[in-house]
Amino acid sequence: MASEPLVKHVFTADPSAHAFAGKLYVYPSHDRKTDIKDNDNGDQYDMNDYHVFSMETVGGPVTDHGVALKAEDIPWVDKQLWAPDAAFKNGKYYLYFPARNKEGVFQIGVAESDVPEGPFKPEPEPIAGSYSIDPASFVDEDGQAYLYFGGIWGGQLQCWTTGKFDGSAYSNMEATDGPALLPRVAKLSEDMRSFTSGIQEVAINDADGKLLPAADHERRFFEAAWMHKYNGKYYFSYSTGDTHFLAYATGDSPMGPFTYQGKILDPVQGWTTHHSIVEFKGKWYLFYHDTSLSDKNHLRLIPKADRKKIHEYLFREGVLVAKKDYNLPKHNDIDTKNLYVVKACQSLTSRGYVKTQFSWQYYYYTLTPEGLDYLREWLHLPAEIVPATHIKQQRSHAPPRGMMGGEGERERKPFGGRGGRGGGERGDREGGYRRREPGAEGKEGAPSGEFAPQFRGGFGRGRGAAPPS
């Protein structure tokens, strides 16, 4: 069931939920305001401490136990305390966390406490051999503990394909063909502070036993590994990242292999939908984050004037192309930063208002019928105005011819730039839009009637009141 965010007084994301000592404890990351520019490194997620939250009943009062661990208290950490997880064994509580070391490389640390809410005392060094982000601990019924981890793009997993860090591989982000990059798993020692086995890849196969391909962005692993066990089966769940799904696979061993089974959660408002799954008092719960509190990703809001330009263009054309370059100072067709265009369309995609496709260098966005209604309402346009692509039979979501041909093809502006298609005039468009003819209400892509967008809450990456500095 969807619910309101559990907390509104601090920025939170990446909730790891566990049933400890008769209560439900949630260990999220803690966002804060920053002036760092958004980029694929994730530098904008400038987190420097952890809070722990607890509740006696789901939906009941939530207690913020305050700061449980700070970056300044961890000798090896330079910055960015990202998504953590917790475990209980041998009468102790353990907090696993990723952070960048002094060389800028993500590793995973561990801290210990006598109580689930902390404070936690960190080990002076990261876990030997650890790398990447998003640690998820799992203690099996036989007492053996495991640690799952990994995340592509800003999580640096693509830099570890040889077993050693290769910084030159960072900019590739991920392969465009062949099998997808896989999450990692290792057995933990009895004291929960080191690996006792070699790090292994966690195989996620399709129904035919073949590894999921890198090009399958709706199924392949991106980040946010999680493990739970139910009726003797192991359930490995994860985020698909840039397509915003939560997916799961099942297997007979905690080390895998796992067979892809489907999606747990469709896209919500925000990025990655990092989650956890926990049984508490006989019921199972899914915790996740979204941005419904603030319509933000990492606490930044696209200026309203720029968002309006993006929405106007998308509504007018019905389709939009953006280069995969967050640092591009200006979008090719819209007088705003390319970053703003990508982020605005990611937000619309997460709510089902835009369909996204990918190529090596570009994102291709197509307005859905639901998105048409939403943007018409957002722009305060009359019902008879529809985009050019929706006045006729609905086009497929495949990129139009010529869009895959690189920069030379891109200059043709197949979506109708300022000069219209092929350099001609806009024809029967009025004010840049195409007006629907009388009697066309039943045509596909031009629904009428009242529209009320629905946002689902969660353990939100977002804000209510500003957090304490």
UniProtKB/TrEMBL annotation:
Record's signal peptide: none
Protein origin, superkingdom: Eukaryota
Gene3D superfamilies (alphabetical): Glycosyl hydrolase domain, family 43, Winged helix-like DNA-binding domain superfamily/Winged helix DNA-binding domain
Q: Where is this region: Disordered?
A: 392-469
Residues annotated as domain Plectin/eS10 N-terminal? 302-393
Q: Which GO MF terms are attached to this record?
A: hydrolase activity, hydrolyzing O-glycosyl compounds
Q: Does the keyword Hydrolase apply?
A: yes
Which SUPFAM superfamilies did the record assign? Arabinanase/levansucrase/invertase
Q: Which protein is depicted?
A: Xylosidase/arabinosidase
Traced from the root, the source organism's taxonomic lineage reads: Eukaryota, Fungi, Dikarya, Ascomycota, Pezizomycotina
